[in-house]
Design brief:
With 122 residues, this protein is mainly α. It has one domain. The chain is 72% helix and 0% strand. The protein is elongated. 26% of the residues are buried.
């Protein structure tokens, strides 16, 4: 079984960084549901891809959330873009926004849980 210290070793020390990295692209996904200039969608692809990969890295690319973030990164990647109609992107944007928010919450919860249950180092 994986040691929880190993799991959290690559997390930033402050919760605000986790929220900034994962909640900003979540908000961008929700804004992308509205009609926006094409450049906004290109920027959203880049930001979501980077954030999803960072989130997956923080989760050591493991678990359902870690794997889901990698899938989101592949879906949004700007290098080999997947072209879908707007009506198909809307549910993907909503699910991705929820995935990013849940990931941030779970990472912070895990980090907080670990911080409060550390015993003395021997």
């Amino acid at each position: 079984m994986q040691d929880s210290n190993e799991r959290l070793s690559n997390l930033p020390s402050d919760d605000q960084t986790i929220w900034l990295v994962l909640a900003t692209p979540a908000a961008m996904c929700l804004l992308a549901i509205a009609e926006m200039p094409y450049g906004y969608y290109q920027l959203t692809r880049l930001v979501v891809t980077v954030a999803a990969l960072v989130g997956a890295y923080w989760m050591n690319f493991k678990g359902l959330l870690g794997i889901s973030l990698v899938i989101a990164a592949l879906l949004f990647n700007p290098i080999i873009p997947i072209h879908l109609e707007r009506e198909h992107w809307a549910p993907i944007d909503i699910v991705t926004a929820a995935l990013l928010i849940i990931s941030a919450w779970r990472l912070i919860e895990s980090k907080t849980h670990e911080d409060h249950h550390d015993g003395p180092s021997i």
